[in-house]
TrEMBL record, chain A:
GO biological process, one term: positive regulation of rRNA processing
A GO-annotated cellular component: small-subunit processome
Species of the source: Lentinula raphanica
Organism placement in taxonomy: Eukaryota, Fungi, Dikarya, Basidiomycota, Agaricomycotina
Domain WD repeat-containing protein 75 second beta-propeller: 423-709
Residues spanning the membrane: none
Keyword 4Fe-4S carried by entry: no
Listed name of the protein: WD40 repeat-like protein
Region of interest called Disordered, as start-end residue ranges on this chain: 1-79, 909-953
From TrEMBL, chain B:
PROSITE patterns: WD_REPEATS_1 (PS00678), WD_REPEATS_2 (PS50082), WD_REPEATS_REGION (PS50294)
Pfam families cross-referenced by the UniProt entry: UTP15_C (PF09384), WD40 (PF00400)
WD repeat windows: 118-160, 252-293
Localization of this protein: Nucleus, Nucleolus
Top-level taxonomic group: Eukaryota
Domain (U3 small nucleolar RNA-associated protein 15 C-terminal) ranges: 378-516
InterPro entries, per the entry: U3_snoRNA-assocProt_15_C, WD40/YVTN_repeat-like_dom_sf, WD40_PAC1, WD40_repeat_CS, WD40_repeat_dom_sf, WD40_rpt
One GO biological process term: rRNA processing
Protein name (database record): Trp-Asp repeat-containing protein
Keywords: Nucleus, Repeat, rRNA processing, WD repeat
Organism annotation: Lentinula raphanica
A single cellular component GO annotation: nucleolus
Length: 953, 528
């Protein structure tokens, strides 16, 4: 049911297109998605291939780029998610795009991405509201000053207004259908006072009525404010309130010329929310106070407009830190507030009593309220780690929470040690990444592109800070997984502060194969005293079934090996736990890195200027390598099936031959080397050098020559990288975390990676799991709503089981047989011979329609896709065009034809002459509540007219 | 996300030896085989080479037994008088024995032919042994008070030691040096001879030289390291430090009657002693405590443990030879001896600590907290959930009543692990300062008492130091106002000072040990 090209909006003759960019957008954006590359990514947009245009390259860097894909989203927006009218979807702003999620499943349904502005990259979308004229449209504002109107059902961009100033907030009201109100940053009049004027902003009214052809909208300035923190229209539609700095600016919308009345709050106002029925509003400030303002009455504002005033307020105080978001429940009896404490506070307004939903996991950033299908209410909390949490209003418990990959620099930036945990689990091909909280990690599955689970390495109560100083959490520093995939070792450490010394724990986790959950097996306190653990690795598996050793190198100058021991007691299962096996200590140097030879028999320890080789089994020192070319060996890796040893210095790489015990070659890099990654299967290895903070050059070497076999570049530097190979290949496939906290996949094999719903898709195409209606409960599922795609899959399986012999399906007892709805189609198709030529998509449905014509039952209208052979006279067409122009072109609603056929049937206008139609009862399609419907009139006519035109040709 | 209760750490505990795997191990030596001889069995010696046949000396013959079948494979009976001390060379090819006429004979085990005879002793020879490091030399100790070193190829006496004044009934060549010999005599002395000087280099006598109360030395045994020796005189065992010039380290009296036999197990980590009281006792050499006791039907005269630790043979006065056997585990059997030796030399923790490996950290933590699986939404899973009841301090902590939570764990009956787990949690929450603040002397007292009590405990010492530092920092202004608090602070200081002295001593010892270890390690580096 994909839209054919003839449905493109520009094919329809239009009186005028308001913006020149709009018309071609559908096609150009589509082209982008198909190619999936040719776009430089800024700010971590999902699934774009880094293949920058040649203009961005500097002159002396003529390296070819290495392919890479970023998987992380950018940070969540401070703007609360917006719900559709019926609450079945919500819009969340993520960087430069609007993501549409289904409320019931939390699944990403569609993504509306802003097109790149003429200056280059698309800029961040800051606000979204429903179009007051049409609830199936949203209006977004972005920092590049563009107001965009989208049809989210069709996922098309309808119109763009260029304001030219960064937009921060948008609000709209039904009473002011033609207008929206926005806050923008004002441009600087003079350059000298740039710093002071940065927060100068103004409130504008934009008229959306496009009576004339001019592309520029009608802008009315309402007044100047400081940097805005909130903008809202009173429920009565009479008042507009903006908050900025210490003040609340109130404007009477019936008399907008009078300007703002300013009310002063003792603290900086952080957020704003209007009561849903009455004319008062609530503000939350940076000190944690919530104020209710009752100042919206005619008498007080008319007289002294433009002056700063004080007024009576009610103050509610519980929060210790800034209130980040406020929301009233829809009946207006309760006020919800949240902030850094990660506690949702529910204030009963008439009594001032509070209720709490504590321990949400992360600071609350946004709060929004929606109605559930059963008539209850739910609170949607957006947390700072991009998790969306639904709290049921009736139970005040978390009903569900949806998390996507969480990787944000803010929670990790204060760490002294810049080691980032990253590991690949080989059996399930999942990645273990740092999570939003420093003491936990998340498991990300590449195949399903979902976060599978989250694991708290050091469980803690996430209490909020007491003073200005943030509480230092325990940080996960290293994660390694054994080659068998059964064991995971982690290092978590708490950095010492002035009063207390730190803590270091090594924890070894066992993977429960049934539930695939990591269970803590052994905890080792202070494996290297209070010093940092600098390196940790499992030995390669020598033999199947034999568990590998773990080696750790610490700041206390010791290299320790650990092994699994089994404790057998009578009548009990054998318990395995990890114990120290041996310790090699170096009094003068600190071992920075330890690596295993591929067969697990040798340990290479890098210490200062030396690299020492130890027999892993007996701990006997074998040999020492030292060379004047490399005075500081940072890391050492075995390459080439263990014959060579690649020693990485600060700016040089040496290759030792273990057989001849001599340097085979050395390579000096012009830039600092920060990582060496050997290929797991063949002899090559890659060296990462940082050209600048945002750019790294990658050399690929083979042991035979010091000439790099390949030089490529990446537009970022990696803080940690691990090898993963989706399939055995000659080139290196890496997963890494960049220094600006993006999770990227690097390598030639990296495919253009598409998560479901990451492109713009029409909502109607999605088959949302529908709720069963009462009708269905009584009479069973309607055959017309039967999901054929689904049934075909299941029936195929059923058919396979039946293995050609149809009668055998009834051999089993009835309670063991598959449901009849699954059985019917395959069974019939066994008996009936399929017509070879014609593939009718809905054979059963069609046949039934024809049979049922005589019966006037309450059946929903079938969804029929056949073009009917209908003669349509020319005068009908002209009358239709007249109707179309009269109704639809006045208010500029979407011009795109709907893709869903027959749903929006308009009776009465339709010039239907078919015989079968005349018999049909006038029954509306029973539409489940959960599914939003397009506006019927416009779309219906557009559709039919289009069809008629086709027939004329 | 639920409230996380305070996790009380479990600290490692040194394993106790009472119910130990030790006893279980020794009890594995089951099914004793009793072989009847004509006369008291005076010596049993296992061949160091496989298949570890053993020579049993009784009356006028030496018999070789096969360890599998416990049957006699060879009998050497070419003695004119009672044979003594049949012992096999390290390669398992030669056997030496003395007899009561003073004759020493060297036999080829296979052909039982006499290869060499040494006939210089005038009195019965009770000890004949091959040197471990110089396989061509033989030590013999005789009742004529002399100790001789013989060269086998030349069939001549190299050295004669004449320092003893009474029967020399026991002796042993050193395992660490080819020149040193340890002997024990009925003159109540243990002497260390050096063949280079040909003189007695060290005299160890239990009574400090006063011969009146002296008891004859029955047995001597030297540790493989050559630094410590064990001797038995009467029912008393003595441990001598040879490095410290023959200082007596320990005296053990666990037997009721004279100890007549001493033996090590294969790794010299256990010492076995057999006595006339019909008992064999097993000592742990790290503590010299009895780990196990075995009972025999008659007074034990000689004792030997096979090198693969599968047989314990004991000869008794009534002419019975008892052989206890153990079937080794499959894993043990296949372990290569040479590899084991290298591992031993490599110095892993396991070889040092043997079976009594203390758990470092916390092994096998039962996962209370599971990771949250996001899972399939359609999958409806009912988890059995037990309502966990929070402890009183957890309840207070949940309500952010830090001070009250701290008070609740400072009571008498609360174990210190709980107390310090809560303090740790307060540190994590940045709340210890609040919990400690605003206390008068009555409320401060329990804190200080806990600090004084546990400042030297290795489990909590570091945390006590942190907390004490904070307390001192916070309460310095009120010093001198309450005599109770002042005395507690003084006690804390005193205890810290004592601990510091102790730690310095430990550091010194550790330094000395490091020197010894590195010396040993440097000698073990294989030559290029």
């Amino acid at each position: 049911m994909a839209a054919s090209t003839s449905h493109e909006p520009q094919d329809i003759p239009l009186p005028s297109t308001p913006s020149s960019t709009t018309a071609k957008l559908g096609r150009s954006r589509k082209g982008l998605k198909e190619k999936g590359k040719g776009k430089e990514t800024v700010g971590g947009k999902r699934s774009t291939i880094g293949n920058p245009p040649p203009s961005t390259r500097s002159i002396h860097e003529d390296d070819p780029p290495l392919r890479w894909v970023s998987i992380t989203d950018s940070a969540p927006s401070k703007s609360p998610p917006l719900f559709t009218q019926d609450g079945s979807y919500y819009f969340a702003l993520v960087g430069t795009s609007v993501k549409i999620f289904a409320t019931s499943t939390g699944q990403l349904v569609s993504t509306l991405s802003a097109p790149p502005s003429p200056t280059g990259s698309p800029s961040e979308i800051t606000s979204v509201v429903l179009n007051p004229q049409n609830i199936f449209q949203i209006i977004t504002g972005s920092l590049d000053g563009a107001i965009r109107i989208w049809d989210f059902l069709d996922a098309t961009l309808l119109r763009t207004y260029e304001i030219g100033q960064p937009i921060h907030h948008i609000c709209a009201h039904e009473k002011h259908q033609d207008n929206i109100f926005i806050t923008v940053s004002r441009p600087n009049p003079n350059k000298q006072t740039k710093k002071r004027m940065e927060d100068a902003s103004s409130v504008l009214r934009i008229s959306l009525k496009v009576a004339d052809v001019s592309a520029l909208p009608d802008i009315t300035a309402l007044g100047k404010i400081r940097f805005p923190t909130g903008l809202a229209v009173a429920p009565s539609g009479n008042w507009l309130v903006a908050t900025a700095g210490h003040k609340a600016y109130v404007s009477n919308l019936s008399n907008i010329k009078s300007g703002f009345t300013k009310y002063v709050s003792p603290d900086k106002i952080n957020c704003l929310s209007f009561h849903p029925m009455e004319d008062f509003f609530a503000t939350g400030d940076t000190k944690g106070n919530i104020r209710l303002w009752y100042c919206l009455n005619e008498s007080s504002t008319v007289k002294v407009a433009g002056l700063e005033k004080k007024t009576q307020t009610t103050s509610l105080h519980w929060h210790a830190h800034a209130v980040s978001s406020l929301a009233f429940t829809s009946n207006g009896a309760y006020l919800l507030s949240g902030g850094e404490e990660s506690v949702l506070v529910i204030w009963q307004l008439h009594s001032g009593r509070k209720e709490f939903v504590p321990r949400l996991g992360a600071p609350i950033q946004t709060i929004s309220v929606t109605k559930t299908l059963r008539g209850g209410e739910e609170y949607l909390l957006g947390l700072t780690d991009a998790t969306f949490v639904f709290v049921s209003a009736s139970t005040l418990r978390i009903s569900r929470s949806y998390a996507r990959i969480k990787l944000f620099p803010s929670n990790h930036s204060s760490a002294l040690s810049q080691s980032v945990p990253l590991a690949v689990h080989p059996n399930t091909s999942t990645f273990i990444l740092p999570s939003s909280h420093a003491s936990s990690v998340q498991t990300y599955s590449l195949s399903s592109s979902k976060v599978v689970s989250e694991l708290e390495i050091s469980p803690s109560n996430r209490v909020s800070r007491r003073e200005e100083k943030p509480i230092e959490p325990s940080r996960v520093e290293r994660i390694v997984i054994s080659p068998s995939g059964d064991w995971m070792a982690s290092i978590d450490a708490r950095t010492p502060d002035e009063d207390f010394q730190g803590e270091v724990y090594m924890k070894i986790w066992y993977r429960d194969r049934k539930t695939s959950v990591w269970v803590l097996n052994t905890r080792i306190d202070k494996p290297h005293g209070l010093h940092q653990v600098l390196s940790l690795s499992f030995s390669p598996q020598a033999q199947a079934g034999e568990e590998s050793y773990l080696v750790s190198a610490g700041g206390d100058g010791a290299v320790k090996t650990w092994r699994l021991r089994h404790n057998r007691e009578k009548g009990k299962e054998a318990e395995g736990f990890w114990l120290a096996r041996s310790c090699i200590s170096f009094p003068n140097e600190i071992p920075t890195h330890v690596s295993w030879s591929p067969d697990g028999s040798l340990l290479a320890v890098s210490l200062g200027a030396y690299v020492m080789l130890y027999d892993a089994l007996t701990n006997v020192h074998r040999t020492t390598f030292t060379s004047p070319e490399c005075l500081h060996a940072c890391t050492t890796y075995f390459v080439g099936q263990g014959r060579y040893l690649a020693v990485q210095g600060k700016r040089e790489v040496l290759l030792w031959d273990l057989v001849s015990q001599s340097v085979r070659w050395s390579f000096a890099s012009p830039y600092p080397i920060y990582n060496v990654v050997p290929h797991p299967e063949n002899v090559t290895f890659a060296i990462f050098t940082s050209v600048a903070s945002e750019r790294s050059r990658v050399y690929t070497f083979s042991p035979s020559t010091s000439q790099p076999s390949r030089v490529t570049y990446l537009p970022f530097t990696l803080s940690n990288a691990v090898c993963y190979s989706p399939k055995p290949s000659a080139s290196l496939s890496l997963a890494g975390i960049t220094h600006d906290w993006r999770f990227v996949l690097v390598g030639d094999e990296v495919k253009s990676f598409q998560e479901e719903g990451s492109s713009a898709t029409g909502l109607l195409l999605q088959s949302l799991p529908k709720r069963r209606t009462l009708f269905q409960d009584i009479f069973g599922k309607s055959i017309f709503e039967h999901n054929y795609a689904l049934s075909n899959e299941t029936s195929a399986a059923t058919l396979e089981r039946m293995s050609g012999n149809a009668e055998s399906a009834f051999d089993v007892p009835a309670y063991l047989a598959p449901p009849l709805e699954n059985l019917f189609d395959p069974l019939l198709s066994v008996y009936l011979k399929q017509h070879p030529a014609k593939q009718d998509p809905l054979p059963a449905a069609d046949a039934l329609v024809e049979d049922d014509l005589g019966m006037q039952v309450d059946e929903p209208e079938p969804i029929v896709q056949h073009p009917r052979t209908v003669r349509i006279e020319a005068e009908e067409i002209s009358s239709l065009i007249a109707v179309f122009q009269k109704h639809s072109l006045q208010n500029c609603t979407p011009l795109k034809t709907p893709k869903m056929n027959g749903v929006a049937k308009v009776n009465g206008i339709h010039p239907e002459t078919s015989k079968s139609k005349s018999f049909r009862p006038e029954v509306d399609v029973p539409t489940p509540l959960s599914e939003p419907r397009p506006s019927p009139v416009v779309n219906g006519i557009g559709k039919k007219r289009k069809k008629a035109l086709d027939f004329l040709e | 996300m639920d409230y996380q209760p305070v996790i009380v750490k479990v600290h490692p505990r040194p394993s106790n030896f009472k119910s130990s795997p030790e006893a279980r191990y020794w009890r594995q030596f089951k099914h004793p085989v009793f072989v009847k001889e004509y006369a008291p069995v005076t010596a049993v010696h296992f061949s160091p080479a496989r298949p570890h046949r053993y020579a049993v000396t009784a009356a006028t013959r030496v018999q070789l037994y096969a360890p599998r079948t416990q049957k006699v494979t060879k009998t050497i009976s070419r003695f004119k008088d009672v044979a003594r001390s049949g012992s096999i060379r390290a390669d398992g090819k030669l056997l030496v024995a003395g007899d009561d006429t003073g004759l020493i004979q060297v036999f080829d085990i296979n052909s039982r032919a006499i290869l060499r005879t040494f006939d210089s002793h005038k009195q019965p020879v009770h000890v004949t042994k091959f040197s471990f490091l110089a396989p061509t030399q033989i030590l013999s100790c005789s009742d004529d008070t002399t100790v001789r070193i013989w060269d086998v190829p030349a069939q001549s006496c190299i050295t004669t030691f004449t320092s003893h004044t009474d029967y020399v009934r026991t002796g042993q060549p050193s395992t660490s040096s080819p020149h040193l010999y340890l002997t024990g005599s009925y003159d109540a002395t243990v002497r260390l001879f050096d063949s280079r000087s040909g003189q007695c280099e060290m005299v160890m006598s239990p009574a400090g030289g006063s011969s009146s109360s002296s008891v004859p030395v029955e047995q001597v045994l030297m540790f493989p390291s050559g630094t410590v020796a064990v001797s038995s005189a009467g029912p008393i065992l003595r441990v001598w430090d040879l490095v410290a010039g023959g200082r007596c380290l320990r005296a053990l009296s666990n037997h009721q009657k004279t100890v007549t036999a001493l033996a090590f197990d294969s790794t010299a980590s256990r010492l076995l002693s057999g006595g006339l009281d019909q008992m064999v006792k097993v000592y742990d050499v790290s503590t010299y405590k009895v780990a196990h006791t075995m009972r025999y039907p008659a007074p034990v005269l000689c004792l030997a443990v096979s090198p693969d630790e599968t047989h314990i043979a004991a000869g008794m006065t009534d002419g019975t030879l008892s052989v206890r056997r153990r079937t080794p585990k499959a894993s043990e059997a296949q372990s290569d001896a040479s590899l084991a030796a290298t591992i031993l030399r490599s110095g892993t923790f396991e070889t040092f600590l043997g079976g009594a490996m203390p758990a470092i950290g916390q092994g096998t933590i039962k996962g209370k907290v599971k990771a949250k699986p996001f899972g399939d939404l359609n999958e409806f899973r009912i988890e059995s959930r037990r309502a966990k009841r929070l402890k009183s301090y957890d309840k207070l902590l949940k309500n952010f009543k830090y001070s009250a939570a701290l008070d609740s764990v400072l009571r008498k009956n609360v174990p210190p692990t709980t107390t310090f787990a809560l303090i740790q949690e307060l540190i994590h929450r940045d709340g210890l300062r609040i919990a400690l603040a605003g206390r008068d002397d009555v409320l401060l007292e329990p804190i200080l008492r806990v600090l004084v009590k546990y400042v030297t405990d290795p489990r909590f010492g570091e945390m006590v130091c942190d907390v004490a530092g904070l307390v001192i920092q916070m309460y310095t202004p009120i010093l001198g106002q309450s005599p109770l608090i002042d005395t507690l602070f003084l006690r804390l200081r005193k205890k810290v000072q004592a601990e510091l002295r102790f730690q310095k001593e430990i550091q010194r010892t550790k330094g000395a040990l490091d020197m010894i270890f590195s010396a040993v390690a440097s000698t073990n580096i294989p030559p290029r």
